Amino acid sequence: MTNNDIVQKLWNLCDVLRDDGINYSDYVTELVLLLFIKMVHENTQAESLKRHVLPEGCRWTDLNGKSGLNLLDDYKRILLSLSSGRDGAGRLIHDDPLISAVYADAQTRLREPRHLEQMIKALDQIDWFSAQKDGLGDLYEGLLEKNANETKSGAGQYFTPRALINTMVRCLKPQPGEKIQDPAAGTAGFLIAADQYIKDHTDDLFDLNAQQQAFQKNRAFVGIELVPGTRRLALMNCLLHGMEGDDEGVVHLGNALGQTGAGLEKADVILANPPFGTSKGGDASITRDDLTYKTSNKQLAFLQHIYRNLKPGGRAAVVLPDNVLFEAGVGTEVRRDLMHKCNLHTLLRLPTGIFYAQGVKTNVLFFTKGSATDKHQEENCTENVWVYDLRTNMPSFGKRTPFGEQHLKPFEAVFGDNPNGQSERKEGEYSFHSDKIDLPEATKATDENQGVDERMIHSRWRCFSREWIAEHKGDSLDISWLKDSDSVDAANLPEPSVLAGEAMGELVQALGEMDSLMRELGAEEEADGQRVLLNELLGEVQ
Prior knowledge:
Number of helices: 22
Keywords: Methyltransferase, Restriction system, S-adenosyl-L-methionine, Transferase
Protein name: site-specific DNA-methyltransferase (adenine-specific)
Mean pLDDT: 86
Enzyme class: transferase
EC number: 2.1.1.72
Distance between the termini: 36 Å
CATH architecture of the domain at 3-149: Up-down Bundle
CATH class of the domain at 3-149: Mainly Alpha
Family: Belongs to the N(4)/N(6)-methyltransferase family.
Strand order of the largest sheet: 3-2-1-4-5-7-6-8-9
């Protein structure tokens, strides 16, 4: 039985949860509360878990022989004990802060004992020996990915495609002994991929001495996550991958745009996909007083945190939407500051449809703190920006056309082996038939294509000097030179629902930017009124 088969089997248990009135968004949380107890049991049986063992009375063997109300009551008691560290009589049964964090405020919404019994029996019937070979952590991540791909669950908002994560990690090449950070950790996909990359290059850490191994397990990685339920998933994910972190775990609960972020230790490597949208107050508000450029645009605030939080010579890869590349005012100032303080050496324009929201156009920015020759330099650090266009004339990705590592291989090849973007590079890369695109005269006449020979105009890989960006783009990084083919084959058009989703995605993004602009102009009341109107028009999501 493969991990994919097991993931499908686990996902099928969600039908049991639905019968108990539990909705899509709570499926995975409900499932993993029970699944984690089972996985700790399997890891303990295999003697691969030395720390963070569950206390007596709260283990899988305390559940799997019971039935009826006794079973449901015992399960509720176990969740409460794991969360509080105390049993029903108030006696201390564990003082493990990580277990307490994983089960913080954990409650089951199951009402029918037979449904819980059904789930326990199903988990007991899985071939865990086969699952162990591929790693329980990979199995767990497969479940998270499945959840993210189910649009009804709404979980895709914090899930970056695995292929993109792996490419970003391979480009930055994290090393043992480096501090690696994700200020918007989600379910910890970037941190786990970076850990796996290091393990793959150190014989699963056996090439390191005991002190170095301890650093990798407990101090190398740190993430911040705002949402407690998502952080729970992240902590479980890290533990199942052998990443323990400090007393709070690898992923800390907090707001990277608040004081939690301000107190973070500087990092050698930062990998991130910050949440889209604008700050609207509450727990997610931007309260940092150490960010130079005040803004309600969360991505611009995250970008400032990232390049400020890198050590000299530190490197970053960050997923950002198009508006960060072209937004005027504060956006221009942030980009200018980034290119002053860092060597922004590479920009990857991503295709649409690879994230949960159709129509959201995104990019990956790769940069190193300091210049190519002096890591302590703080001005004029960017000399050239290399841009790879993986968006123009690419398929509309989605369930019918999945986005995979094969689509990113040409980019990795031209990026080169140097993690700071200093490999020898040459313009001219024509993957995915870019040389066959019939470009209209208007496209050939754009600034990007002036003085460029006909063949190079078709290349997906081009270089633009810092001076050119300042002079021709006014420090906008919205650089494009190719154009989608005008000859659209109707048979290859996306489903109408996808086209409608893309249109709605662009409208939502535009509305978010208008909301941000009104608030920056001091028109908060009018903006709030429009939001109420919109809410009445569309209604709440059920």
